[in-house]
Amino acid sequence: MDEYFKYNTAIVRKVAKSLPEEAQRQSPESSPVDWENTIKQHDNYVNILRNEIGLKVVELPADEELPDCVFVEDVAVVIGNKALVTTPGHKSRQGETDAMRKCLHDLGLNLTIMKDMDSEALLDGGDVLFTGQEIMVGVSSRTNRSACAVLAQTFPEFPVTPIEIKSGLHLKSFCSLVSPGVILLSKKTAEIQKMGENIKLLAKKKYQFLEVDDEGVSANCLYIISEKLGPSIVHPPLEKYPDSKKAYKSLSGVRLFSCDCSELAKVDGALTCCSILLTI
Ligand code: CIR
User: Fold this and answer.
1) 216, 174 in Cβ contact below 8 A?
2) Where would a tag sit more exposed on the chain, N or C end, judged by fewer CB atoms within 10 A?
3) 105 is catalytic
4) What confidence score (pLDDT) does residue 271 get?
């Protein structure tokens, strides 16, 4: 199972200058995104992937017409040498796929384009939790059941398990993989707990669940096995999340990297959103 997480390349995309303004326009009540700090935090994220963990980083330029383009995770699902370019669930994000499609093609991945398979299918990669044995898919305001069928056709070697998302943006807004076979789950609210129970109930493979009584974002992390370091986890700063701190520290033989993504979190971004990890 480990082989699916032995990453050597990360695709990231620069933050568009239009992001803070667009975020403010869409939700004037939310706290404003600080542009300078966003860039600093994103640079640090890229630095951890490249210089600490030792991945090759392919950095796509921003497109000012696409304010959310930094969230590359949503536009492709990659497992091994196969890539599915999604049709993101929000219209404003669908233009982001062009650059990703070209990039994945240039890197030599075996491409499937979702809209060519089913024009009704909608999928944000933030709704996809690949465990190495199974593909869990959040059926959310961004992702529909047709997308589950396309995933099953594209990756027939893995069972696809739909999970209803009733609160928050995506499946990975409250959970992620912390090592093969171990899923970290927030249980902060009754709605989140219910979704977590569904994951446990519907999972087709056996997992260990680490449950934390912290915000969903604390459970969103990157699990990477690199040639340079072996297993590493990039997680949010844990001062505010004592339960998650305990959970991450309980994992043995893993290097932990704290990475602050608080500016992008104001627009529902988490750590997994900002990269696509490749084993090729
Ligand atoms: C959106 O609403 O699409 C963006 N503001 C946030 C996307 C975050 N992506 C992710 O969690 N995978």
Assistant:
1) yes
2) N
3) no
4) 98
Cβ of residue 174 lying under 6 Å from some atom of ligand 1: no
Which residue type, as a one-letter code, is found at position 93? R
Contacts of 61 (CB under 8 A, 6+ apart): 13, 14, 99
Beta carbons of 60 and 12 less than 8 angstroms apart: yes
Per the CB < 8 A criterion, the answer to whether 34 and 265 are in contact is no
Least confident among 21-25, 84-88, 163-167: 21-25
Closest protein CA for atom 7 of ligand 1: 269
CATH (domain of 41): 3.75.10.10
When pLDDT is averaged across residues 102-127 and rounded to a whole number, the result is: 98
Task: Identify any residues that bridge with 185 across adjacent strands, giving them in sequence order.
Answer: 175, 211
Band (27; pLDDT cuts 50, 70, 90): confident
Q: Which residues on adjacent β-strands are paired with residue 211?
A: 185
The average pLDDT across 239-264 equals 97
User: Does residue 235 carry a catalytic annotation?
Assistant: no
**3-state helix/strand/coil string of 199-243:** HHHHCCCCCEEEEECCCHHHHCCEEEEECCCEEEEEECCCCCCHH
- Please tell me the predicted confidence (pLDDT) of residue 64: 97
Q: Which atom of ligand 1 is nearest to the CA of 267?
A: 5
Q: Domain range for residue 207? A: 2-278
Structurally, how many domains does the chain consist of? 1
Residue 30: the pLDDT is 85
pLDDT at 1 over 90: no
Quick one: pLDDT at residue 50? 98
